[in-house]
Amino acid sequence: MSKQRKFGSRKGATFIEYALLAGLVAIVVAAAAMFFGEDIKRLFSETGDKATSVSEGVHDVKLNTSLQDANKRATSGGGSSGSSTATP
User: Fold this and answer.
1) Is residue 58 part of a domain?
2) Looking at the 3D structure of the chain, how many domains does it have?
3) How far is CA 52 from CA 30, 34, 43, 57, 58, in A?
4) In 35-73, which positions are buried (b, 16+ CB within 10 angstroms) versus exposed (e)?
5) pTM above 0.70?
6) Which ranges of the chain would DSSP assign to H, the alpha helix?
7) Domain assignment of residue 8, yes or no
8) Residue ranges of the chain with pLDDT lower than 70?
């Protein structure tokens, strides 16, 4: 008689092992969230505030005019090839 036949299939045991492992991971994640929750919340809040301030600061910039000015400076900077770089 083979060992597998004698002890039965391991499919159920493997499923239980994975379920226990998933439960342990869930407990660790929950504990980490409780421990670091406020720090993570503050980090995301500060990042969101900074992104909003950058967005508001860029909102009023006239991008097309700035690009046209840069192109004028690049082409008037000399050189007949047209590939000169802009100088501030």
Assistant:
1) no
2) 1
3) 30, 28, 14, 8, 10
4) eeeeeeeeeeeeeeeeeeeeeeeeeeeeeeeeeeeeeee
5) no
6) 3-7, 11-59, 63-76
7) yes
8) 1-11, 59-66, 77-88
